[in-house]
Amino acid sequence: MLDLDQLQSGDRIVVRYRLAADLDSSSPELSDALGELQQVTAQSVSIATRRGVIVVPRKDITHAKRVPPPPARRRSTR
Q1: What is the pLDDT of residues 4-58, one digit of tens each?
Q2: CB neighbours (10 Å) of residue 67?
Q3: What are the C-alpha distances in Å from 43 to residues 39, 69, 77?
Q4: Residues near 8 by Cβ (< 8 Å), separated by ≥ 6?
Q5: pTM score of the predicted model
Q6: Hey, CA dihedral for 15, 42, 51, 31, is it positive or negative?
Q7: For the sheet containing 52-57, what is the strand order?
């Protein structure tokens, strides 16, 4: 896993993390956050995604990695 303390604000990352446990479920549900890193603290990581800023507790992160910039948008051929 990526060392979160080595990242800088503005790095593009993806983080997989555990969601709040559902009492009826035997397996934890996971989600991903893709976007620009805003802040890393001892307790959490803040990521600016398309849907807004997501704050993920570090204890819930299962995977993290840097990702390349998004591909350029294609022009419409219509």
Answers
A1: 888 899 999 999 999 976 556 666 799 999 999 999 999 999 999 999 999 999 9
A2: 11
A3: 11, 27, 47
A4: 37
A5: 0.81
A6: positive
A7: 52-57, 44-49, 30-40, 12-18, 61-66
Q: What is the pLDDT of residue 24?
A: 61
Instruction: Enter the tokens of residue 68.
Output: 């390349």
Which residue matches tokens 């800088």? Answer: 8
Residues whose CB falls within 8 Å of the CB of residue 11, separated by 6 or more in sequence, listed in order: 36, 37, 66
Residue with tokens 């603290």: 41
Strands, DSSP E only, in 1-78? 12-18, 30-40, 44-49, 52-57, 61-66
- 37 and 9 in contact (C-beta within 8 Å)? yes
